[in-house]
Amino acid sequence: MTATPSRTGARVERLPLARFTTLGVGGEAEVWFVETHEQLQEAMEQPYRILGGGSNLVIADEGVPERVIRLSGPLAERDLTPDPHLSEDPWVVTGWVGGGVPLPGLIRQLQKLGLSGLEGTVGIPAQVGGAVWMNAGTRYGEMFDGLHTLEIVTPEGTRQVTPDDLNWGYRDSGIPRNHIVTRVRLKLRRAAPEEVLAKMDFADQARKGQPKMKTPGCAFKNPGGVSAGKLIDEAGLKGSRVGNALIAPEHANFIVNLGGATAADVHALLGLIRDRVPVPMELEYELWPAPVDA
Ligand SMILES: Cc1cc2nc3c(=O)[nH]c(=O)nc-3n(C[C@H](O)[C@H](O)[C@H](O)COP(=O)(O)OP(=O)(O)OC[C@H]3O[C@@H](n4cnc5c(N)ncnc54)[C@H](O)[C@@H]3O)c2cc1C
To answer: What is the CA(55)–ligand 1 centre distance, in A?
Structure first.
């Protein structure tokens, strides 16, 4: 199908979702590239999903029947100019940063500008909206360390909230599923760029053992503080392969796509891990569509 504009001018195209995910897996869906709030409201008139950087997703080979919304154009742009009314030394409150902005580039830009607060999230291949929705982070910092205001859109309308309005916590923003984080304003502290860079380098050290291939990140949460990777390794599963999906030899909690893997291959490996690891472990990935018993 070629791209057709919607009633309000959104580009709508039937596309393989694999190209939007870090795993490189996923069948087709109707993708809505929305650039304005008006287009977003139209996209939300039918069942929809919001897709960010696709860095936490395993999407079925059949794709999904719902509309898949991608924030584009102005909703993927950033204005990092300090707001003179809200900024008070050493704190800087920026203009709006679109939910569709890739997080890694933003973190590099903030470092160069000498703005500190989000550098602990270095290396997370998300979009700003997805990272905020999950409160993505590492032991060195998380998204809610640097938020001033969030704009959230639902089929009922648009509202602006502050972190204090939300029941956020560990890897959780408290924002319900399919409430779309369209834009945020950041609250950051002025610092020397070298100081921010040093923190980023330190946080990045923890990723040295992670595989460099296509992956949706860690497969399982650590059960009760025990390393999921260690448990999978101890079950003798490192290097196990189904089709073109592999349990990474570098780190057993990562499943990688060797090229041409299917969602079925990944699900088979997840099933193998569940069968062989004696401790129940909760999945870190989000599955599209969700399994019936989820
Ligand atoms: C190599 C690698 C390393 C990683 N390291 C980390 C890490 O250190 N820490 C960490 O926390 N995570 C990590 N992750 C996982 C992943 O990056 C995070 O979970 C991230 O928050 C997902 O964001 P995304 O934009 O890619 O969202 P997606 O994967 O596209 O979607 C995930 C969920 O967010 C929702 N969503 C997406 N955009 C929006 C939006 N604008 N508004 C509302 N909901 C939205 C989706 O509907 C979906 O429910 C890693 C992943 C990879 C591949």
So the answer is: 5
- Specify whether domain 78-206 bears CATH 3.30.465.10: yes
- The architecture that CATH gives domain 9-74 is 2-Layer Sandwich (3.30)
Instruction: Give the mean pLDDT of the chain.
Output: 96
Interacting residues of 231 by C-beta distance below 8 A, sequence separation 6+: 223, 277, 279, 281
Residue 171 appears among annotated catalytic residues: yes
215 lines ligand 1 (CB under 6 A): yes
Q: Please identify every stretch of the chain with a pLDDT value under 70, giving residue numbers as ranges.
A: 1, 293-294
| Ligand 1: nearest atom to the Cα of 171 | 11
Domain boundaries, the chain: 9-74, 78-206, 228-288
Cβ(154) to ligand 1 under 6 A? no
List of residues 6+ apart from 139 with CB closer than 8 A: 120, 206
Check if 14 is active-site: no
CATH code assigned to 228-288: 3.90.78.10
User: What pLDDT, in 10s, does the model give residues 198-219?
Assistant: 999 999 998 988 999 999 999 9
